[in-house]
């Protein structure tokens, strides 16, 4: 942005010169007139003094008016806007004083102020969105628990029904608990700048352990698993957080793949990077969802909305940011998806 920095504005100089020439012209005329008219010496001294006094008053008023237009009024508008913002109104906008080609530092300040208010406003919406999302996600399991508890209280349920209701309560409670721990985790990760727990460890072993966790779920859905994992690959990262990444990617793969589908895990490494891809033959991701799947609470496919809460990939993304890693997605709707994670390899001493 170009800010006008004019140390000697010619237009102002011309105005002042014009005024002063005019005034001193009148002064000289006055002296000639008084001389000719034979006024007393006292009068000849006092009249010019009064005259210049009037000129000084005029100049003072002129300068005062100028200051009011250039500084006081815009500052007053800014003060008014600041007050509104402090009361929580983020819709304020203060217009700049000059046009874009004649901006001064006050204009720049006003523009930055407008930008700041806009940013504050969007943070505020994010916050309210977050609160309403959390409340929405909590409502369903709480309602389920309430219903089952009421049914249990009637005392009319058979033993089998009682078991079913108790199971319902347990499921809803674990959904709530996973929601809360995900929110807490995400909150902690968002405020964390660097990871202090990074250590060099074998990611292959961790991958095998994660796959093992999902074996039962895959068998149940008759999903074929292909794993192409090296014997050993060292990365430097926080192992607990990386476990979240693999578990979330695998749980999504299992969740979004139909019965009889297939999941492939491939891991490769070179001197600098370790790459892990998780592919599935599931429903795939629509193009318009692609940009949103890493957002908190975003769930593309609502038919699965009862499972999960849309926080999984937000966590994955944040963890990878902290680990200097990357994630790429390739997906074809109806065909399947591949999530490719790239991590820096641990620098071995030898
Ligand atoms: N493997 C996958 N196949 C198809 N869609 C996926 C896959 N993984 C993630 N998605 C899409 O991304 C969304 C967000 O995923 P995630 O944050 O893990 O939330 P959740 O699993 O709770 O729905 C999902 O709702 C889904 O629409
Ligand atoms: Mg998920």
Explain the overall architecture.
This protein has 8 helices and 7 strands; from the N terminus they run ααααβαββαββααββ. With 350 residues, the chain is an alpha+beta fold. The protein folds into 3 domains: 10-119, no CATH class; 135-191, Helix Hairpins (Orthogonal Bundle), CATH 1.10.287; 199-344, 2-Layer Sandwich (Heat Shock Protein 90), CATH 3.30.565.10. The protein has a 5-stranded mixed beta sheet with strand order 2-4-5-7-6, covered by helices on one side. A hairpin with a 3-residue loop joins strand 4 (262-269) and strand 5 (273-280). Helix 4 (159-191) runs parallel beside helix 8 (312-322), helix 5 runs parallel beside helix 6 and helix 6 packs antiparallel against helix 8. It is elongated, with a radius of gyration of 37 Å. The chain starts with 9 loop residues before the first helix and ends in a 6-residue tail after the last strand. The mean pLDDT is 90. The structure holds adenosine-5'-diphosphate (ADP) and magnesium ion. Magnesium ion (MG) binds at residues 248, 251-252, 308, 312.
Can you summarize this structure?
With 350 residues, the chain is of the alpha+beta class. It has helices at residues 10-37, 41-86, 105-154, 159-191, 203-220, 239-255, 287-290, 312-322; strands at residues 199-202, 224-228, 234-237, 262-269, 273-280, 326-332, 336-344. Magnesium ion (MG) binds at residues 248, 251-252, 308, 312.
């Amino acid at each position: 942005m170009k800010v006008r920095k004019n140390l000697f504005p010619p237009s102002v100089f011309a105005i002042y010169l014009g005024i002063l020439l005019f005034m001193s012209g009148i002064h000289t005329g006055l002296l000639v007139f008084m001389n000719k008219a034979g006024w007393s010496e006292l009068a000849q001294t006092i009249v010019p003094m009064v005259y210049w006094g009037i000129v000084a008053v005029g100049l003072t008023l002129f300068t005062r008016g100028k200051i009011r237009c250039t500084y006081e009024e815009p500052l007053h508008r800014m003060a008014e806007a600041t007050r509104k913002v402090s009361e929580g109104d983020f819709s304020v906008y203060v217009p700049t004083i000059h046009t874009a080609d004649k901006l001064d530092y006050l204009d720049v300040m006003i523009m930055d102020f407008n930008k700041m208010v806009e940013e504050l406003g969007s943070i505020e919406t994010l916050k309210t969105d977050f609160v309403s999302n959390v409340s929405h996600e909590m409502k369903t399991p709480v309602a389920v628990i309430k219903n089952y508890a009421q049914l249990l209280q009637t005392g009319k349920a058979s033993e089998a029904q009682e078991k079913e209701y108790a199971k319902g309560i347990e499921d809803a409670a674990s959904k709530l608990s996973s929601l809360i721990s995900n929110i807490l985790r995400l909150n902690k990760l968002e405020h964390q700048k660097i990871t202090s727990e990074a250590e060099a460890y074998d990611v292959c072993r961790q991958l095998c352990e994660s796959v093992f966790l999902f074996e039962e779920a895959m068998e149940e859905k008759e999903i074929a698993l292909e794993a192409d994992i090296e014997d050993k690959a060292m990365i430097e990262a926080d192992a607990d957080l990386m476990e979240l990444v693999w578990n979330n990617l695998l749980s999504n793969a299992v969740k979004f793949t139909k019965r009889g589908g297939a999941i492939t895990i491939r891991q490769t490494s070179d001197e600098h990077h370790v790459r892990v891809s998780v592919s599935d033959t599931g429903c795939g991701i629509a193009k318009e969802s692609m940009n949103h799947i890493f957002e908190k609470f975003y769930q593309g496919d609502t038919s699965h909305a009862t499972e999960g809460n849309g926080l999984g990939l937000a966590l994955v993304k944040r963890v990878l940011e902290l680990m200097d890693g990357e994630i790429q997605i390739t997906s074809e709707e109806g065909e399947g998806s591949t999530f490719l994670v790239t991590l820096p390899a641990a620098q071995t001493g030898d």
